[in-house]
TrEMBL record:
Belongs to the XPG/RAD2 endonuclease family. FEN1 subfamily. Residues 1-112 form the XPG N-terminal domain. The keyword Hydrolase applies. Residues 276-334 are annotated as: Disordered. Residues 148-220 form the XPG-I domain. Signal peptide: none annotated. GO terms for biological process: DNA repair; DNA replication. This is Flap endonuclease 1.
Length: 334
DNA sequence: ACTCTGGGTCAAGACGCT
DNA sequence: TGACCCAGAGT
DNA sequence: AGCGTCC
């Protein structure tokens, strides 16, 4: 996923929305985390790197992967001891809008598959092996079980995890979304935290993005911001050749909406992909049942964040969210 | 000359001992 | 996937 | 900081 070049664009055009802070300044906060994303990173990264052989994931006696368990266990412990309260959100059914992108991924997957079979060198084998890595249903269930046993709240999202994270944040159930993926901003998470890790070799500070300051800084409404993201290139649509972040921002500012932008484009110069955005913008509303209500202005989260520390009521936030989402169908990979 | 896009690359966790 | 670098196209 | 280990 991800919006191509959004970080850089925000840095250039709305610098006020990004700030860096020490981990300690987040103690006491609840943070929603996209679990599938984390699991994927762990499975990619946690390997026994024997020299001369392709690095292997950790497994149990049955040959089942355990890297994700190592990873999520350590990280969660680390967060808890640092006073951060994670809420892990698991993906549900992928939105149908995304099917195009998913098909592309499948194609890339198969390409990697065949390249792996043809691979000679250790490096190639490793490279293509990693490219084949996926988070399966089983991995998610392992993680859920572990987290429940640890007493850490788990949420099953009806659809995309990032969307549910943002929704939890908007509802004040958590203070922020912790992710590397800027998509969460499109779902209006009031705060987005990047690099929320606690490695002993503490590399870089936490990066905090404020949603309200971001759209204010860009001078856009929420709808325009979504339009901008679509133009920049996201998971839901193809892009228009020749239009990147900079010009996309310029165009949206000038024309007000994506529909107007498309209308005013010189079609000879820019090829608009077939079947592109019709009239109204299809905001990636990823919560079929949940997010549609409560569309009204939910002010005050972004600006007056300091007071929110008291928002952490003693009860874990999972109870009602979970119920609603429990029956949602899950994506599974064959 | 400058700005931007696009296509390539690479790396991707966390611990504890030294 | 995202960050980065470099090449090339466009302004 | 670097490096081996985690299964």
């Amino acid at each position: 996923m991800g919006i191509k070049g959004l970080t850089k664009l925000l840095n250039d055009e709305a610098p006020g929305c990004i700030k860096e802070a020490e981990l300690s300044s987040y103690t006491g906060r609840k943070v929603a985390i996209d679990a599938s994303m984390a699991l994927y990173q762990f499975i990619i990264a946690i390997r026994s790197g024997s020299e001369g052989f392709a690095a292997q994931v950790l497994t149990n006696e049955q040959g089942e992967i355990t890297s994700h368990i190592q990873g999520i266990f350590n990280r969660t412990i680390r967060m808890l001891t640092n006073g951060i309260k994670p809420v892990y959100v698991f993906d549900g059914k992928p939105p149908t809008l995304k099917s195009g992108e998913l098909a592309k991924r499948m194609a890339r997957r198969q390409e990697a598959q065949s390249k792996l079979e043809a691979a000679e060198s250790v490096e190639d084998k490793e490279k293509y092996g990693k490219r084949l890595t996926r988070v399966t249903r089983k991995h998610s269930e392992d993680a859920m079980k572990l987290l429940r046993l640890m007493g850490v709240p788990v949420v099953q999202a009806p659809c995309e995890a990032e969307a549910q994270c943002a929704e939890l944040a908007r509802a004040g159930k958590v203070w922020a979304t912790g992710t590397e993926d800027m998509d969460a901003l499109c779902f209006r998470t009031p705060k987005l935290l990047r690099r929320l890790t606690f490695g002993a070799a503490n590399k870089q500070p936490v990066m905090e993005v404020d949603y309200q300051k971001a759209i204010d800084g860009l001078g856009l409404t929420y709808e325009q911001f979504v339009d901008l993201c679509i133009l920049c290139g996201c998971d839901y649509t193809d892009t228009i050749k020749g239009i990147g972040p900079k010009t996309a921002l310029k165009l949206v500012r000038t024309h007000g909406s994506i529909a107007n932008v498309v209308r005013s484009l010189d079609k000879k110069k820019y090829q608009v992909p077939a079947g592109w955005i019709k009239g109204s913008n299809p905001a990636p509303s990823a919560k079929p049942d949940e997010a549609t209500e409560g569309e009204d202005g939910l002010e005050g989260e972004g600006a007056s964040n300091k007071e929110n520390s008291e928002k952490n009521e003693s009860a874990p936030p999972e109870s009602d969210e979970k119920k609603k989402a429990e029956d949602a169908e899950k994506a599974d990979d064959a």
